[in-house]
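Incident log, support desk, overnight shift.

02:14 A customer reports that sequence design results differ from what the structure should imply. Their input is reproduced verbatim below. On-call engineer (initials T.W.) acknowledged and began investigating.
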């Protein structure tokens, strides 16, 4: 290592120590006072570190649970669409769905299951803080995604069998919803997924700032209902919707599903990690370095 490289490494080490010290020594505010940026960041990094330290089997089980629970949003989407079909225009029904779409997300977040999009920014923070490697983050992402998707497939199969038998929705409704998700061009789905990932990452940050259960539920409802009302693409609930359409319609192929899922996952990851994890963390770092 050259002398110049040693100087640069020493400077980086000094900056890292300053950042760690600021995070660790951030004073806790009063019970009713809003949390500071440093408090939220510290809590987020601590939560993320706890996730990294869990066993793979625990993470897989928790992420599968999240995939199952997110299916309750799909149940309500299909049921509301079937109930309102013929009573109002289809475009209006899709707007009304925003009122029930948050249910699965509320169950997942309040039940502390591991959902990929809600955890994306959170799991990025220890990497940015040099406590974890990119490789460990990608391995954890992969495990969470697998669990979420498997849970989603299971609940999709169950609900597609149960719905028609209870008379709460039929195959035509499932296909209509899947077509609605897939109607956008690939590049639009990707950008839409970036914005959805951004919102989910912000949700994680906002939840860390909340101090009571009602506030947390309201935040989850507001963020996810915005996603539903605007038609933004979420990789996990979207997987349940498109997978269900695929098993019900020959016009929706496996290639359609894989294409959608790839774009949605990449977009959600990019939105959560870059726009929230990186920008929120860098804003804190610039504030420390500038002192």
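02:41 Re-run completed on a clean worker. Output:
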């Amino acid at each position: 290592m050259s002398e110049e490289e040693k100087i640069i490494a020493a400077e980086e080490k000094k900056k890292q120590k300053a950042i760690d010290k600021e995070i660790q020594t951030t004073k806790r505010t009063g019970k009713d006072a809003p949390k500071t940026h440093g408090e939220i960041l510290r809590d987020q990094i601590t939560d993320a570190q706890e996730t990294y330290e869990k066993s793979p089997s625990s993470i897989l089980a928790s992420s599968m649970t999240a995939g199952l629970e997110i299916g309750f949003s799909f149940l309500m989407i299909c049921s509301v669409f079937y109930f309102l079909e013929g009573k109002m225009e289809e475009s209006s029904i899709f707007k009304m769905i925003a009122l029930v779409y948050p249910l699965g997300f509320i169950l997942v977040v309040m039940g502390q299951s591991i959902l990929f999009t809600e955890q994306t920014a959170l799991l990025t923070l220890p990497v940015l803080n040099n406590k974890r490697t990119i490789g460990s983050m990608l391995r954890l992402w992969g495990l969470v995604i697998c669990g979420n998707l498997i849970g989603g497939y299971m609940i999709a199969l169950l609900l597609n069998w149960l719905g028609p038998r209870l008379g709460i929705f039929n195959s035509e409704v499932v296909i209509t919803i899947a077509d609605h998700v897939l109607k956008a061009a690939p590049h639009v789905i990707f950008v839409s997924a970036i914005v959805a990932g951004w919102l989910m990452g912000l949700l994680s940050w906002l939840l860390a700032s909340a101090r009571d259960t009602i506030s947390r539920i309201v935040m989850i409802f507001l963020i996810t209902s915005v996603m539903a009302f605007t038609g933004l693409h979420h990789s996990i609930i979207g997987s349940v919707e498109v997978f269900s359409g695929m098993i019900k319609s020959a016009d929706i192929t496996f290639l359609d599903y894989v294409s959608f899922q790839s774009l949605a996952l990449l977009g959600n990851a990019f939105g959560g990690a870059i726009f929230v994890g990186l920008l929120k963390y860098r804003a804190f770092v610039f504030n420390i370095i500038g002192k």
